[in-house]
Design goal:
Helix content of chain B: 25-40%
Radius of gyration of chain A: 24 Å
Number of helices of chain B: 12
Bound molecules: zinc ion
Strand order of the largest sheet of chain A: 6-5-4-7-8
Distance between the termini of chain B: 17 Å
Distance between the termini of chain A: 55 Å
Shape of chain B: globular
Order of helices and strands of chain B: EHEHHEHEHHHHEEEHEHEHEHEE
Largest sheet of chain A: 5 strands, antiparallel
Oligomer: heterodimer
Largest interface: A-B, 25 and 35 residues
CATH superfamily of chain B: Thiolase/Chalcone synthase
Helix content of chain A: under 10%
């Protein structure tokens, strides 16, 4: 590469090695019709999924479409507050923005009556005892603290039922 | 070269704000209508190409979620461009030229309402010199209009005429966001927004989606009584730095028009993606369109300007007029970037 020759007026000045150009943009997020219905349901302590008219799968939280069939999911299905752990992760590593005390367990939980697991916290159980197929129930925040957010469920905990059979959740791991 | 045609086009209502629907909910009916217009179901589609920008939604990989609208199972052949949907159509056309795809679905969507679009668009500028100054999209267009006015390329009266004609034509377009009868002289009497631009010189802020179906050869003839054949398509880009460009003309449009063969036959109709009034005047001359050419019978981007989508709508509008028999030879144009930085030109013909 040929050597760069600077014009006289730029010779001897301190070279610019880096620049900082901070940027910030604010957005208003649109949950959409289906997810808004779900969130309003949560505010009433109800868990509402939507069923696909073609493959009959129940999605929660619903986004308004079946990702398999590309059709609107309009039939509403009320789900129980119990479910099955399909997979889980024991978190042992600190990360930015972490609010939980280590170690803790984050799990995919297939709510009874649904075909898509939601991710939530698992507590009141030792990380060593968590396993696939474990039956769990939702623990809600006090009624006067309930808001339209999944954080209205504080966590899930084992409900003492025998483990769910593999066939009941094998499509959701 | 394989013969490839636009055989179906659909769009959502183009509105200022779509606060109820998320992107996939806005898109689903459009995909449904585009496939229905071609008389096919998703099983018949060999390739899907989509266009959108994460900067509009303020969300990473936002296009992955909107794929729900096409039901991508069993796994499909699919691609995405962070460009206007007209470029997604170009990618599909290239893929079809390679011979493995007979039917392609192309869709685009953009909701400008979640963010401040004039600021969001500054993020497409170069990140060292221009981006840090946050010059908004209307101000940059105003700079270009000023260059054209000073050079004597057009007058503010010409620009107001473009606005009035576009809004009048949009009265026949049920999907358009803006329409009406406006007196150009009265428009000119109103305050300027960013000198020399008035509100009527600028596009509305729009949420919307659109889709087209492309098909090759005999498949197109089987699915459509009068396919709009793509006889030429090309796109060119100009330098990032505005100071390196002659803003009073559109060199990249001139080059794309030559490569697409715009001048190889008479043009009856043109759908030009000109978000600002003066840009239509620059594009008309770059494309060499005579006064007898019907320009933007849909009302154009001055009456609905969903980002990432309005260019694909030009292709769809021009194609549907060929399919309807209103034109035998039409030009569709799409633009991207500040001050007409990048331009795509497509020549469509009936048989
Ligand atoms: Zn389904």
């Amino acid at each position: 590469m040929p050597e760069l020759v600077l014009p006289d007026r730029l010779r001897g000045v301190e070279p610019v090695r880096s620049i900082r150009t901070p940027a910030r943009l604010d957005y208003e997020f649109t949950a959409g019709r289906a997810t808004s219905r779900f969130l309003r349901g949560v505010a009433e302590k109800r868990l509402l999924g939507q069923r696909c008219p073609v493959c009959r799968k129940v999605y929660v939280p619903p986004r308004g479409a079946c990702p398999t069939d590309g059709v609107p999911t309009e039939e509403e299905v009320e789900l129980g507050h119990t479910g099955t752990v399909t997979t889980f992760c024991v978190v042992n590593v600190q990360f930015y923005g972490q609010a939980m005390e280590l170690p803790y367990v984050s799990a995919l939980i297939l709510l009874d009556g649904s075909d898509l697991p939601i991710m939530h916290l698992l507590q009141e159980v030792s990380a060593d005892d968590v396993h696939m197929g474990m039956r769990v129930e939702a623990v809600w925040v006090p009624d006067d603290e309930i808001e339209p957010t999944l954080e209205s469920i504080r966590y899930f905990r084992p409900n003492g039922e025998p483990d769910a059979p593999w066939d009941s959740y094998k499509d959701n791991v | 070269m394989r013969d490839i045609a636009v055989i179906s086009f659909a769009q959502s209502p183009q509105v200022r704000r779509q606060p109820d629907l998320n992107e996939v909910e806005m898109l689903m009916p459009v995909v449904r209508d585009a496939l229905a217009g071609a008389g096919i179901t998703k099983d018949r589609v060999d390739f899907v190409c989509s266009a959108s920008s994460d900067y509009l939604a303020g969300q990473a990989f936002s296009f992955v979620m909107t794929l729900d609208a096409v039901g991508p199972w069993p796994p499909i052949s699919e691609s995405h461009v962070d460009m206007d949907g007209a470029w997604a159509a170009y990618e599909a056309w290239v893929k079809m030229q390679m011979g493995h795809v007979d039917v392609a679905l192309v869709y685009a969507y953009g909701k400008s309402s979640p963010g401040d679009i004039r600021r969001v668009l500054t993020r497409q500028l170069d990140p060292y010199y221009l981006g840090p100054l946050w010059p908004d999209s209307v101000s940059l267009a105003a700079l270009q209009a000023r260059c054209g006015l000073d050079a004597g390329s057009f007058t503010k009266a010409d620009m107001a005429e473009v606005a009035a004609r576009s809004r009048r034509d949009a009265k026949a377009n049920a999907w358009a966001q803006l329409s009406g009868d406006d007196d150009p002289a009265e428009l000119l009497g109103r305050d300027e927004l960013v000198s020399p631009l008035h509100v009527h010189d600028c596009p509305p802020v729009t949420d919307g989606a659109a889709a087209v179906v492309l098909a090759a050869g005999d498949v197109a003839r089987e699915l459509c009584a009068r396919p709009a054949w793509i006889r030429g398509i090309d796109h060119r880009i100009e330098p990032h730095a505005l100071g390196l460009r002659d803003l009073t003309r559109s060199v990249s449009t001139e080059q794309a028009a030559t490569a697409a063969g715009v001048a190889d036959g008479p043009v009856q109709l043109a759908e030009l993606h000109a978000p600002f009034t003066h840009q239509e005047l620059i594009l008309r001359s770059a494309l060499g369109l005579g006064d007898d050419v019907v320009v933007n019978p849909s009302g154009g981007a001055l009456c609905a300007n969903a980002i990432m989508t309005a260019g694909l709508i030009r292709l769809g509008e021009a194609a549907s007029r060929v399919t309807a028999g209103d034109a035998d030879r039409a030009v569709a144009h799409a633009t991207s970037g500040p001050c007409l930085q990048q331009n795509l030109v497509c020549v469509l013909e009936g048989e």
